[in-house]
Amino acid sequence: MDSWIYFPQLLSSGITMGAIYALVALGFVTISRASQIINFAQGEFVMLGGVITFFLLNGVNLPYPLAILIAIMIVILIGLMMHVSVIYPLRKAPILILIMATLGTSIFLSSTSGLLFGTLPRTLPSFSGDQSLHVWGVFVLPQGLWVLVSTFILLIFLYLLSHRTLLGKAMEASSTDPLGADLLGISRNLMVFLAFGVSAGVGAFAGILITPIFFTSYSSGTILGLKGFVAAVLGGWGKNSGAILGGFVLGIVESLSLVFIPSGYKDAVAFVILLLILYFRPKGILGSPFIDSRRW
Amino acid sequence: MSLLSIEEITKEYDGIRALDRISLKVEKGSIKGLIGPNGAGKSTLFHLISGVEKPDSGKIYFKGREITSMESHEISALGMGRTFQTLQIWGNMTVVENIMAGMNRRLKGGLFSCGLWLPWIRRSEKEALMEAKEILNSLGLLGKWESMASQLPYGKQKLLELGRALAMKPELLLLDEPASGLTLTEMQQLSEQISQIRQEGVTAFVVEHHMGMVMEIADEIAVLHHGKLIAEGTPEAVRRDPQVIEAYLKGKRANA
Amino acid sequence: MKGSKGILLLSFSILIFITWASPAYVAEKSYKIGVNLEFTGPWAEVTKTMRNAMVLEVERINKIGGIDGHPLELLFEDNGFDLGRAASNMTKFTKDKEITAVVGPFEDNLQATTRAIAEREKITNIIICPSNPMLRSLKQKWAFNIAQSDIIVSQKLVDLSLARKYKKVLVFHGAWPLAQSLAEYYKRFGEEKGMKVIISKETHKPTDIDMTPQLIKLKPIIEKEKVDAFYACTGGPPGPIICKNLRTQGIKIPILGTHAFGFAFIIALGGEAMEGVEFAAGKPVVPDQLDENDPVRPVILDFDKRFRERYGVGIDQIAGHAHDTISLTYDALKRCQGKVTRATFRDALENTKGLKNCHGIYNYNPTDHDGLSKKDMVFIRIEGGKFKRIKFLGFE
Amino acid sequence: MVDSKKNEFKKRDLFYLAPLWLLSLIAPDPYLYHKKEFKKRDLYYLGAICLAPLIWSDSHFHHLMVLAGIYAILALGLSLFMGYAGQISLGHAAFFGIGAYTTAILTTRYAFPTFLAFWASALSAAVIAYFIGRPILKLKGYFLALATLGFGEIFLVILRESTDLTGGVIGIFGIPWFSVMGFVFDTYLKQYYLTWGVLIGLFIFSKNLVRSKVGRTLLAVAASEDAASSVGINVPRIKLEIFVLGAAFAGLAGSLFACIMSTANPEAFSLGFTVFIVMMVILGGLGNLYGPVAGAILLTWLIDILSRYQEYSLPIYGVILILLLIFFPDGIGTRLNVRVIYLIGYWAKKKKRDEGKL
Fold this sequence. Notes:
Helix content of chain A: 55-70%
CATH topology of the largest domain in chain D: ABC transporter involved in vitamin B12 uptake, BtuC
Radius of gyration of chain D: 22 Å
Radius of gyration of chain A: 19 Å
Shape of chain D: globular
Oligomer: heterotetramer
C-alpha cells in the first residue's frame, strides 16, 4: 500500500514522541519507587517547566542556561510543596482520595499557570538551530536528537541514583517493604518527599526539552501526563528501564498507527493499549517489582 | 462414602513441594483435626480445599462431587463454610448484618426484586433477621447485635466469624487456627462452641497449631510434616506415634 | 444517615443564604449588560482582551454622560467552557430584571443552549464570536451576531484564492465546529467559482501539539495532486504549528489562513514559518493601512489609540468585536428614548442602520441578524513578522 | 477597571461557607451503615424538596436545582459503586454521555418520543457498561481507576471522530423537551419536578438495595473479597451488576441532561466532569446515600458562586477541592461530627474541672 511511503518519517517522529513519553513516565516511576502513589499532576510539572522557562527567558530576560536551571529549581520546589501540602496530610487516606487530591492539584496548577503566565501556548528557541536535517529522505529536527540524548542521560542518572546510591535503595525499600524500612529507621515520608522533588525536576526537564518542538500551553500537561503514565504501565510499573521502553513503544505505535487510522483517533490508541495491557499483562512488558498477580 | 475426600494431592511452589501426594478423608458428622509444625503445609491444604488455589495434581471430592477446579464461591455455595487464620470479618457492617450476610446464599432475590422491595423480599429479610438473632444468641453476642463489628473485642470477633460460617448452614466447616490469639477462657468457650456445633451434626475440619485443644475436641487427627502425611488416627494413637514426636521435637529444636 | 440529615439541612440553608446574599451590584438606574464568557479554559486569553475592550468603551461612554444620564454597567460571569454553567449564568442574568442584554458565550456549542434560553426568557443575546451557520440559520428572534459569518469569510477567502489564480487547494481543517463549517463553505463557494478544493480526511484538535503525522500523510497528496495552495483552516495555536511543521517537512507551497490568523501571538509563535501566509480578516488587524476614504477608518484609529494608551498593545479583531458590541448597545439604548425594557432594546437593536464600527458598517433587520457584509474584510499577508494589507484589482 | 471593585473577592463570600460549618457541626456521623430503614425525617426531606422551588421561585434557582438533581442521579449510581462496593470509577462521565447521545440521536434522527428515548438511554448505557465492565472489573485500586479513565478518554475520542453518528465536535442541536403522554416539561419549574421526581424514585430504589441482601453483599465485597466468596458470594458478578446499575442511572441522568440543555456535545463529558461528580460522592460521605444528593447540591451552588470571579474561578475551585479532600476525606458530616463530639467532651470536662476547683 502507498501509505508506506511515509513510514520512515512517521517512525522518526514516533521516536521523538516516544522519548518525551519516556521522560514523563520516568517521573511517575520515580515516585512509585518511593511509595505506591500515582501522581496525576505529573504532566503539570512538564507544562510548568516549559512555561516558567519561557517566562524567565522573555519576562525576566535571563540567559537561556540560567533560565533553565532556575526553572527546574522552581518546579522542584513546587513538587516539594505539593508533597508537603497535599500528599503528606493525606498519607493515610484511601487510594480514591489520593487520586482525587492529585487530580485537584493538577486542575489548580494548570489553571494557576494559565492565570499567571497566560493561556497562550509558548515556544522556546531550540538548543541548536531550527534548520531541520534531511537524512535519507527523513526530516529530523536537531532538537529531536537533543531529546533522545538527554533521555538516555537522564535514564543513566536515575539508574545510578536508584541502584547505586544508598538514597535510592532506601527509597525502594520504603516502597516495597514499608515495615522493614521503618525498622531500619528510614523515614518514609522523607523518601516520598525527596521522590516528589526528583520527579518534579525530571518533569520540568522534559518540559523544557520539548517546548522548542511542540508548543507548551497551560493545558497541554494533562494529556502528556496520562500518556506518560500509560507508557510507565506498558513498560512495567516501577521500572526505570520499563518507563523508557514503554515510552518508545507507545510513541512509535501511536505514530505508526496513523498508517491505518485517521489521525483523529490518535489519542485513543494510547488508552486502547492501556486497557489491553491492563487486561492481559498488568505487570507490563518488563514485569514489575510491585504488582503481583493476586493484588492487581 | 465420606463427606470430603482428598486424593493424591500435590502442590508445588517453584520447585518446593508444599504438599506431596496427600490423601485424606473427612467422615460425615466427625471432627477431624489437622496438625503439624510450621511450614508443614496445613494452610496450603486449606487453600486448595476452599478453592483459593488450585492443586498441580490430584483430586478433591466434596459430597461426592469433584470440586478440584471450582471457584471458591461455588465451593462454599455447595455448603462448605470456613474461618480464616487472619481474622476476616466485615468491619463496615453491624454484628447482625455480618451474620445475615453469611446467610446470603440461602436468601433469594436479585437486584431488581430487592430494589423494588417486593413482598417476598420483605418477608425473607424479616426471617433472616430473626434467625441471625438466634445464632447470635447461641454465640452469646446478642447483647451487641446492633454495634459495628469492628468495635467488638478480638475474641468476640473470632466468635462472630464462626457464627458467620455457621449462618450459611454448612455441612462441612473448615476452621483455620480458630484458637490463635485467644485467651484461655476464650479458647474454652470456643471449644465448647465447636463441640456444640458437632451435636448439631456439622462436620468440622480443624487446622490447629495448638495441640491441646485439638486433642480434646477432635475424634481423628492427621499430622502433616514437610508436606507429607506422617500419621493419621485417634488422638491417643497420634500422641504416641514416634514420628510425630520426632517431628515436633525437631520443630522445637529448630525453633529454639 | 442521621448525619446526612444534617448535610441536607445545611445544603438547603446554604441555598437560602446564597439566594439572599446574591451578587450585590451597586449602581442606581444604570443600564446593565451581562457578559457570559469563557474566562477560564482554552479561550481565556481571547476573552480577557474582550473584557478589556468592553471596559474601555464603557468607561468612555460613562465619561460622556452615559445614555442620557444613565451609566452603562457590565456584569461578568465565567462559564468555564462548560455547558451547564453557561446555561445557569444565562438564567442568573435573566433573573436580574435590570439586565437588558447578555453578551453570549464564545464557544458555539455553548451558544446553542444560551440562544435557546434567550428565546424562552425573552432577553437579547448578543453573540460575539463567529458562530457556525447551523446556529445562525435558526433565525432566532432574540439572538444577534456581531462577527462575520462563516459564509462571508469563506467567500472572501475564495476571492483571495481566485485573485492568486489558485486552481487546486488542499484544506486541512480542525475538528471543531467553526473550522469544520469554514472548510465546507470554502469548498462549496470555491467549486462554484470553478476551483478544485480537496478537504483532507485528516483533521486536528485545538490541543494537538504536533501536526507532523497528519502532514506526513498529506504530503503525498500535495505532491501527487500538484496542489497550488494549502488552506490551514484552523484557529489559535494550531495555525502556527501547522505552518512550522509544514516547513519542517520541506513543503514550500503557499499557505492560506483563516481570519483567526490575524493575531499578534500567531506570528510570535510561528516566527519564520509564518512568512508569506495570506488570509482575509477584519479591518482591525491593520488599523494603519486602511484607505483614506474608508468610513470606519476614524473609528478604528481612535479606538486603537485609546487601547494602546490603556493596555500598551494594539487592537485586534476580538477587541474590535467587543468595541462593536458596546457601541451597538449604546446606539440601541439611545434610540430607546428613555423607556428601556428588554423588548424595546431588542427592537431598537434590530433597527440598527449604517452604524460605523471597527469591523465595518452594521445593518440589522428582522430577517438578518448578521450585521456585516463581505466588503468589511480585507486581504492580509504576513511579511517581515508584520501584517501587511494586500490589494488586487477587481477584488475588494 | 470600572468594576474591578466588584470582581474582587468579597469578605462576605467567605461567609457563604459559614453556614456549612455551623450546620455541619450538628451533623452526626453519616457512617451508620446499619440505620438503613426509612425514617420519619425522610418525609421532611420530601416536603423540603417539593416546597423549595415554590419558596424561591426564580428561574435561576430552578435551573440550578435541575442541574443539581441531574448530577445527583449520576452521583447516586456512582456512590453505589464506589461508596458501597468500594470500587473506583473515573469513567462515569462516559455513561452520562452515552445516555445523552442516545436520547439526542433517537429523538432528532428517528423522532422517538422522549419518554422511550429516556429508557433506551438507560438500556444502552447499561449494555455498554456490561461489556466494558466484564474485563475491567477484575482490576483493583489505581489500575481500575486508570482503566475506567482510559475508557472515558476513548469514548470522548469516538464522540469527536464518528461525525456522521454523533455530529462530531459540533454535537447535536434541537433536542425536544422531555414529554410524557403529551405533557411537555417546558419550564424550569416543571423540569425541576421531573428531575427530582426521577431522583427520588431512584433514591428509594437504591435505598431498598442498600438495606436488603444486595446492600450487605456490596459491603462484604468492599470489606474483604476472600471472606465474601467464602460465604458463597459471587464477587465478580455482584461487582458487574452494580457497575451496570450505576451506568444505567448515569444513562437516565444523561437523557434528562440532553432534553433540558436541548443539545449534546463532547466537551460536556470530559475528565473534569468526572472529577466534579466523584467529588460530590466523596463530599457527601462514601457509603451513605444522602451524601451524593447533598454533595451535588453543594458543588453545583459552589461552582455557580465561583463564576463571578472570572479567570480566578478555576484556581479557587481547585484549591477548594483540595482543602475539602484534606479536611473532609470521608464526607463533611463525619469529620465535623468527630470534632463536635470532642468539643462537647471538652466542655463537659471543663465544667467538671470548674466544679472541682470550686
